[in-house]
């Protein structure tokens, strides 16, 4: 309103610019001046101009309008929006950078807010509206979230070289490791959730030698002989000093995918840029993730 009056120096022309009746603009301007207790405009013959107070206020009004325009662009513009993405630490090494680089080459105006965090926290963030999408594993059931699988890894029983179980290259049942000490990931990590579920189905609770923050540390500690672990198969082959054994009996897999609020949750609105990036991930992810995880 103030900006329109400043630009036209005429209430009727300002009203036409804003697309409102002139009396409506006059009443709004009078109400604003009354609430502020300061005159913002003054008459100059047949027109109006800003008072000194109005001129001081004008740049703040213009900045607010610019912020509003940028906000509307994020809400409605597929090529100017913002995507809030949360992802697993293991996917931040190569997978997320590759996805972002490819997407931004096609859509350079889209910006990202990134959060790297464990599985449970990433699902909670999407559920609460703190993120638009999550790249994570395992995928949720219920919780108001939808998901799509991009790649499924096999889980392996990882043992040190020379371990008695290493002589079973065709695989072992999970219960064969019931007497072993385990190197596990910390609670809240997706692989820990899958491991707990797998060993519970096998009928035992593991003895824990150490709880690691990440998969790479767990692998290294197995190689050092600290214990055995259940980890995703390593794409480049077992880490030196370890042997990876198939786990027989089913349930030994790790689906990796993209998660987003189910339709009807999260206020029922999805910015176009978010949908654009999710579609890109679903199209490209299954091709690039298999060689970049684990």
UniProtKB/TrEMBL annotation:
The organism's superkingdom is given as Bacteria
Q: Where in this chain does the record put each HTH lysR-type domain?
A: 1-51
Q: Name the Gene3D superfamilies for this protein.
A: Periplasmic binding protein-like II, Winged helix-like DNA-binding domain superfamily/Winged helix DNA-binding domain
Pfam families per the UniProt record, alphabetical: HTH_1 (PF00126), LysR_substrate (PF03466)
Protein name per Swiss-Prot or TrEMBL: LysR family transcriptional regulator
Entry keyword set: DNA-binding, Transcription, Transcription regulation
Q: State the organism named in the record.
A: Nocardiopsis tropica
Q: Where would one find the signal peptide in this protein?
A: none
Identify the InterPro entries for this entry: LysR_HTH_N, LysR_subst-bd, WH-like_DNA-bd_sf, WH_DNA-bd_sf
Q: Record's family?
A: Belongs to the LysR transcriptional regulatory family.
